[in-house]
Amino acid sequence: MGEVRRVRRCYGCGEVLQSDNPDLPGYADPWEMEHHEIVLCSHCFAEQRKKKKAANEPILDTDFREILKQAKTNKSLIIYVVDLFTFETSFNSEVAEEIKNNPLIVVANKADLLPPKTNLDNIHDYVAKRVTDAHLNPLKIILTSVAQNYNIDEVIKTIFTYSEGKDIYFIGAYSSGKSALINSLLKTYKNPTQKYISTSIYPNTTLQVIEIPIDEQHSMYDTPGLSLSNSYVGKMATEREVIHDLIPKTLVRGRNYFLKSKDALLFGGLAFIEVVSGARAAYSIYMAPDIGIHKTSMSNANEVFERIIRKKITRPISTLISTSRDLDVYEIKVDYEDKCDIAISGLGWISFVGNHQIIRVYVLNGISIYHGTAKV
Question: What is the number of domains present in the chain?
């Protein structure tokens, strides 16, 4: 009998993919073809990069870019608040490009949500590496918990150490805790001017910012939250019940599962993973406690996933997902033996010891994933 195989098409233009001739339509890099299920042909990839519209990265709002350009012109101090729980969502390449020459302090918030016995020195090193990968060179990186008032005094002291003669801009993604940090700062704030704290439209934009006077010439600016369109939190911002389940309020403890080849784990009605191949291993799932997790087989994963959604068996369930066909598929080949993570933006992360597994990750269209050295 003849061999039957699936023909792969470009995710962007639909052209049949091939890796033999770069001059013909549908050419894709052989490594990308081998390591990823969803692939763009070289033409679509080049167009996407030219337009800065990567499928898994938010497009920086034009008005927000204007704010960053003004901060850049004035060499203002940037306070970049990132969320340790959804850390991989934090680094938009366009934001990094705009602020890379500003004096910068990175405040990594929500340390209180990390698993027990987490080594915070390791977390600091992990954040430092990711910040460096984003071509940023901060004056200082501070791990905090606004909710627990952890290291807030150090944040305030550091801000005012480096802010003399400068405006200060607080930036951060929606739900990062940026505004909560500013509220903590305001508890010890003394206004040395005759000006008032005010909310107004930032010049040449349609965005509202809160301006807090520092002295007669300089101010602090609380800017709007950055887009999270590559995150479950951003995609489902209007679904209050889903957001309630996604964002943890208390310490997140790992939920442990032993998975072997052809096993699958389903995360509510939002996402799932499959172990295509690999020896039996322990997988720790770090997600909000309200996210239901179900173990099944690869052969049943689609059916079980759709039944969960249809019958609302567990939480969260989103109106954006009714079938597994609503999900993008990424295939990760773990070609080493070491601790590693797979992070799903806005959902959480999976930690395990790499041992040459092949893992497929199913996520809503446009959600970014990250695979790298373990952070806990």
Answer: 3
Predicted confidence at residue 171, as pLDDT, reads 94
Torsion of CA 195, 200, 202, 206, to 10 degrees: 180
Co-location of 9 and 69 in the same domain:
no
**Average pLDDT of the chain, as a whole number:** 86
Are 56 and 227 in contact by the 8 Å Cβ rule? The answer is no
The answer to whether the CB of 250 falls within 8 A of the CB of 265 is: no
**Given the structure tokens 């994933």, which residue do they identify?**
369
Q: Residue with structure tokens 């999270």?
A: 228
Distance (Å, whole) CA 150 – CA 114: 13
Spell out a b/e string for 3-39, using b for 16 or more CB atoms within 10 Å of the CB, else e: eeeeeeebbeeebebbbeeeeeebbbbeebeeebeeb
The structure tokens 């300089």 sit at 218
Reply yes or no on whether the pLDDT at 331 is more than 60. Answer: yes
Q: Do residues 168 and 156 lie in contact, with contact meaning Cβ atoms separated by under 8 Å?
A: no
pLDDT at 59: 66
188-211: per-residue pLDDT in tens?
888 888 888 899 999 999 999 999
Residues 6+ apart with CB under 8 A from 249: none
What are the tokens at 279?
């020896």
pLDDT mean over 157-175: 90
Kindly report the number of other CB atoms within 10 A of residue 89's CB atom: 32
345: containing domain: 250-373
252 contacts 115 by C-beta, under 8 angstroms:
yes
DSSP H or E segment with residue 330: strand 327-333
Cα–Cα distance for residue pair 184/170, rounded to 1 Å: 13
CA distances from 235 to 63, 132, 137, 212, 253 (A): 21, 27, 30, 31, 25
Do 335 and 364 have their domain in common?
yes
210 and 326 co-located in one domain? no
Q: Tell me which of 37 and 278 has the higher pLDDT.
A: 278
